Amino acid sequence: MDSLTELFCLMDDFCRLFEPTLEHRLLGTGAKKRKRRSQLSLSELMTLAVLFHQLRFYQFKSFYLAYVCRHLRTEFPKLPSYQRCVELLPRCAAPLAALFEVLKGQCDGISIADATPIAVCDNRRIARHRVFADSAQRGKTSMGWFYGFKLHAIINSKGELIRLQLIPGNVDDRQPMPNLCQGLFGQLFADKGYIAHWLDFDTGPARPSTHHYP
Predict the structure, then answer these.
(1) Alpha carbon distance 146, 139 (integer Å)
(2) How far is residue 211 from each of residues 142, 155, 186, 191, measured CA to CA in Å?
(3) Reduced to 3 states, what is the DSSP secondary structure of residue 10?
(4) Which of 29, 80, 91, 177 is buried deepest, with most CB atoms within 10 A?
């Protein structure tokens, strides 16, 4: 089984269980609405969303038009237009979040925390950016300024993700830690950006210095 088929089977098996539950829990307005069936199934949409990141494309547009539409027509015979696909993508946000909760690892007593910036546009285009204008913020890392969000993650000793949280770029790295650490036990390792008097991290014994000073 190739990796794309394996990925789709994972998404499809999950959607078969998740979609009925989602439909049951959705709150309706009472008004009757015509349910228009999408050309792409939810499992296909989720597969494309994950594949985009697996292949490390920089832009979804080039991924969809130059790769998917040209090379994956057999696997996805009912591909909609690029504009329609972009309109459908938000539908897979909640299912992907639920899938993470199913697949995430468990705390085993040794946890490692870190954060990475997620820029939503070039700094020169901040004034013209509209998609995340209400939520993205300017932040700074050791690599310089960026506009977007910070993704905080905690993994266990096996490298499995056990916690994730996305925050605006201008929020202090230490702020989401109390919430992220709920339910964890044992030792938590992180860099000095997480140090605060109200946070207690066990970083283990200090390594002896190899430098000799007079």
Answers:
(1) 5
(2) 25, 32, 32, 22
(3) helix
(4) 177
Distance CA 146, CA 143 (A): 9
Confidence of residue 27 (pLDDT cuts 50, 70, 90): low
Q: Among candidates 147, 51, 90, which has minimal Cα distance to 64?
A: 51
Q: What is the largest CA-CA distance in the chain?
A: 82
Q: Is the distance from CB of 154 to CB of 113 less than 8 angstroms? A: yes
Q: 110-119 and 144-156 as β-strands: parallel, antiparallel, unpaired? A: antiparallel
Q: What is the DSSP letter of 204?
A: -
Query: 21: which strand partners?
Result: none
pTM above 0.70, yes or no: yes
Query: Using CA atoms, how far apart are residues 98 and 14, in angstroms rounded to an integer?
Result: 10
Distance of CA 111 to the CA centre of its chain: 19
- For the chain, give every domain's residue range: 3-23+37-102, 104-194
Q: Which residues pair with 138 in a beta bridge?
A: 147
Whether 102 shows a pLDDT value over 80: the answer reads yes
Whether 1 has a pLDDT exceeding 90, the answer reads no
75, two tokens: 């696997």
By residue count, the chain amounts to 214
Burial class (CB in 10 A: 0-12, 13-18, 19+), 177: buried
Specify whether the backbone of 209 is left (phi greater than 0), alpha (psi in -120 to 50) or beta.
beta
> Positive or negative CA dihedral for 166, 167, 172, 178?
negative
Q: What is the pLDDT of residues 182-204, one digit of tens each?
A: 889 999 999 888 877 566 654 44
